[in-house]
Amino acid sequence: MSKQRIHLLCNAHLDPCWLWEWEEGAGETLSTFKTAVELCEQFDEFIFNHNEAVLYKWVEQYAPDLFKRIQVQVQKGKWNIMGGWFLQPDCNMPSGESFVRQVLVGKNYFKEKFGVEPDTSINFDPFGHSRGLVQILAKSGYKYYLFGRPHAEIFSLPEKGFIWKGYDGSEVIAYRFMGWYNAPLGKAREKVEQWIKEHPDHPIGLGLWGVGNHGGGPSFKDCKDLRELIQSTDEIEIFHSTTDSFFKELQEEQRIFPQLERDLNPWAPGCYTSQIRIKQKHRKLENDLYMTEKMASVCAIQGLLEYPTDEFHQALENLLFAEFHDILPGSSIPPVEDTALQILDHGLNIISRVKARCFFSLCKLNEDSPSDTVPLFAYNPHPFPVKSIFEAEFCLPDFNFEDSFVLPVMSIRGKSIPSQVEKEYGNVAVDWRKRMVFMATLPPSQITQIDIKADTILPQRPQPDVKIKNEIIEIKGDNTHIGINTQTGLMDFYRINGDDFLQSSAFLPMVIKDNEDPWGSEVLNYKEIEGVFSLLEETEVPKICGIQKDKYPPVHVIEDGEVRTVVEAIFKYNNSYIVIHYKIPKVFPEIEIQVRVFWFEKDRMLKLSIPLPWNDTEYIGQVVFGKDKLPGEQYESVSQKWVAGYSPDKNMALTIINDGIYGSDFINNTIRLTLLHSPAYSSLPFKNRPLVPQDRFTPRMEQGERIFRFWISGGNAQERFQVIDNEALAHNEKPMFLSFTPTQKGKPYSSAIIIENPSIILSAFKKAEKKNGYILRLFEPTGNTQKTDINIPPLDLSFSVSFQGFEIKTFYIDTLLKKVFECNLLEEEMKD
Question: Which of 215, 241, 264 is the last residue of a domain?
């Protein structure tokens, strides 16, 4: 190739919301697309490129005539649909299944409305990219990936593209564009000329131009200036182009690319934690949506109800919109935060109604149920048995107005199960509403009836009777020994079969120095400790607890029974308070930690520290369709449902499951979970200007009450890593409990789907998008070659599946033919 060739890629980066609300984003979309289509009609050589199905849906809804003009230009090749996703999401925090849906919904829309399917996936603006994306891209028909962050100043990459290799060995050709994805209004020619001057050794160049972030796109002046540049330049070929054309030529020219086998992080590590309420509610909608899809599929294949496709799609689009890269990362203004929470709540409301329909359709009262018991029904949505400590509330048949206390006992099929009564949510001063905590094993993918007998009457409610020895509250279980220090409120030891899995002073809340920037755009980590929380004085406890006493111990036992002991510890730092509940089992090795934070610090970060006892600890976490070593001390890490400290020498691991945080680090042999931070809203540094005005009050994030939950377990490393992903899934996609008397009697429906291998993840069980059958998506999370048997008794179907490490496999189930076909992530059958 003799001449340098420059592909001009005109785009208009349009954030649907950020410093503005979505209605303004929709309005700017209409304006930008109108300008772009007019320029396509006026300039024969011009090509406009844009992605994000959500924006096109707005145009289709609010300006249908404009939408038709765009369709014409797409057919002419003047308007290029690039990317093909629903929108540009955060590319680290959504689950692997959510990324699949971003692609599936987007690609289906563009294929239906425009008849196109891009080869290039683009994410220009997100703040980093999980390596788990590679397999999703490759199995969704993508060959190429174009992205912008992290920038070259902090993350070195081959300038001329590279092969990005996923955890399972999948590959795409990736390219980080140089500079910015747009150009100042009227200065596109200057940007192209500057690029040519700075990169004379690049035979193929990519010049991105157009106005953003608030839309704008191309201008008449820019199109005219670039036409003149093209006509006046002989030694270099400059032409309007598309992402697919650029990559195809790059591939032909370069042929051999260097390989990269890691994630594309970090940038903006503050975004792993900013606006934590959005992150927690996003996780809840993910969990409830994918769990309820599984429930609805189980019901539908048994003929119990019609699969609610439209409701699921509506809730799914709520979820996908909330994953936008200025919503989920928490970098937007307060009105956008409010709207995001409303959107997520709307999705949750839809799903709650569907879940109730499914649950009631599955419930039957056992014909041999004792007449003097109250039935409690439990549904396990997972294809494996779930053994855990569960909580559920119910009402006694009538009020007990006496001073006595009714002590219910629980059984399954006549066999007693360990249980205890704990404080219910309400505060009605009558013995009526009961909160049961119990240990049970729920069989896979079916309803279990638990019978509650309430005929034991005690003179009064039992009081905790836990001894304090040498200032330590000690709780011993079947093979566990745990100690809470009454002088510090911290956990001093957690032993399983005599082995230590923690150092003393575990679960110490730390305050970390931060600033007003929610992105953390100029930092890679948050290391510097400003201070730590300490126990309240006894005289301060009544005020915080709202009790009518002069003083009360800041560390005290609030529940105790045959299932577990619950210890409450209350801390303070400046004007902030924390209440930690240590839920310590008697019959199970897993500890639950609940952290209730009342936060009133500004420009600070809160971390929860967990020191480990091994000198060779590796820090590992779950990421998008994979697990990986986390950078720990280098910079703030991003992970998903669990992290772990692992000692290769001892072959021991401590695993920590969460239900809605993503940031952490590992410093001085200590896991430090990042709970929240309180910068200003959308405060981005520029030169040496103050980050916020210095003449008025400026609101900060996370002021007020936030709640966090963690599940801690130690053991043999191989055993922990074999089951941790499904344990995390069970704590996130929680079994459902409800006490009522069903309208029908009979034997319960049998397990609807069973996966024999306890390591294999059921990522999705849903109705197919374009056919009448069902989609079953499985994932191997350990990195090892494995196989499993799959049984679907209602369809009389059984088959075996083999996996390579970290492999995603998707199957289409034809319920009429009762056959199974492997397909790609777009639900297209794979040909041998």
Answer: 264
How many Å apart are CA 409 and CA 419, to the nearest integer? 7
- β-strands 446-458, 373-380: how paired? antiparallel
Euclidean distance between CA atoms 750 and 765, whole angstroms? 17
Strand partners, 778: 762, 809
Contact 669, 611 (CB under 8 A): yes
Q: Which of 482, 487, 488, 490 is nearest to 466 (CA)?
A: 482
User: What pTM does this model have?
Assistant: 0.98
Residue 445 contacts residue 750 (beta carbons within 8 Å): no
Q: 612 with 760, same domain?
A: no
Strand order in the sheet with 405-412: 415-417, 405-412, 446-458, 373-380, 736-739
The structure tokens listed for 549 are 């006493």
Name which of 609, 610, 540 is nearest 572 in CA terms: 540
Return the structure tokens found at 351.
Answer: 């799903």
Residue type, 746: G
- Note if the bond before 470 is cis, omega within 30 degrees: no
Q: How do strand 808-814 and strand 819-823 relate by DSSP bridges? A: antiparallel
pLDDT per residue over 232-291, tens digit each?
Answer: 998 999 999 999 999 999 999 988 999 999 999 999 999 999 999 999 999 999 999 999
Question: Rounded to whole angstroms, how far apart are CA atoms 536 and 437?
Answer: 29
The three-state secondary structure class of 152 is coil
Whether the CA torsion 99, 105, 106, 108 is positive or negative: it is: positive
Q: Please give the residue range of the domain that contains residue 794.
A: 753-832
What is the distance, to the nearest Å, from the Cα of residue 75 to the centroid of all Cα atoms in its chain? 37
Q: For residues 246 and 308, is the Cβ–Cβ distance under 8 A?
A: no
Asked if residue 763 and residue 623 are part of one domain, the reply reads no
